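Priority: medium. Attachment 1 of 2:
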């Protein structure tokens, strides 16, 4: 979809998602201990709000409820700035590491807390580290019952998910919308992938997705904009690479990549898709 702007320019839209967590929140033993690491979430949140404001965009912030309890004022600022609040978890633990009942209870608690704090309906979920996979692969079935309209936890990539999963937004038989992140072959078009590829190339890819209104949300973490963050303690090579590759100057490169696009919360994209779904008599692509 191309949208007319006030000055007659045409903009294409791209959903923007922000996984609101601090720089040290890897899914590794020991990294869940907040007290062991420098708290840089306020600084990183400021940088991310500034990026959105510079680009004139709004985003969905997938928030961790435990960080929201430590920083309630930050969540209110994000919400008051016109962004949408969704759930990244009660804590940053992978879904498949929990019993299903505990995962459900945690999500219910996190959603209720974030809803009370932000004063807005909380409709979306993204599991920590794309963890609706493995033992948790079918747990999206529970999300409508827990109050969610959409999920964005299933990455069509090896290791994080499955390349055979749909690469475009689709609707499950229970009505839940799934918005997978964009990929380029075996690479994620976010995080280390987007940070490492040449700017002109990623700008072209992002603009093509936006012009097609593909609905594949760009994924950003506030710490990716924080160039003053300390080095990670010793971690496995893969984790270190994914965290550090291309971090320097990412904020200014992102501004060049995204300039000219209308950045929207996932909620807005889903709302329009719902309307199209009704008008088309339910002909949107669906998955089992
Ligand atoms: Zn995360």
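Attachment 2 of 2:
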């Amino acid at each position: 979809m191309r949208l007319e702007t006030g000055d007659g320019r045409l903009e294409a839209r791209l959903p923007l998602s922000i996984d609101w967590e601090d720089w040290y929140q890897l899914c590794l033993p020991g990294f869940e201990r907040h007290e062991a690491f420098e708290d840089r979430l306020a600084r990183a949140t400021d940088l991310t709000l500034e990026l959105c404001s510079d680009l004139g965009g709004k985003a969905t912030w997938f928030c961790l409820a435990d960080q929201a309890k430590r920083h309630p004022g930050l969540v209110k600022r994000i919400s008051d700035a016109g962004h949408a609040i969704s759930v990244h978890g009660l804590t940053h633990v992978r879904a498949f590491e929990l019993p299903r009942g505990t995962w459900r209870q945690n999500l219910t608690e996190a959603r209720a807390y974030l809803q009370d704090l932000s004063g807005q309906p909380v409709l979306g979920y993204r599991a920590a580290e794309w963890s609706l996979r493995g033992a948790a692969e079918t747990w999206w079935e529970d999300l409508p019952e827990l109050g969610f309209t959409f999920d964005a936890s299933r990455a069509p990539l090896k290791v994080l998910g499955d390349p055979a999963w749909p690469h475009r937004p689709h609707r499950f038989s229970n009505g839940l919308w799934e918005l997978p992140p964009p990929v380029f072959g075996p690479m994620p078009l976010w995080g280390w992938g987007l940070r490492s590829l040449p700017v002109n190339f990623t700008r072209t890819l992002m603009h093509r997705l936006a012009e097609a209104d593909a609905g594949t949300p760009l994924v950003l973490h506030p710490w990716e904009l924080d160039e003053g963050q300390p080095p990670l303690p010793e971690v496995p090579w893969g984790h270190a690479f994914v965290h550090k590759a291309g971090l320097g100057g990412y904020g200014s490169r992102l501004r060049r990549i995204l300039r000219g696009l209308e950045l929207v919360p996932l909620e807005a994209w889903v709302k329009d898709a719902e309307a199209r779904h009704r008008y088309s008599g339910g002909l949107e692509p669906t998955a089992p």
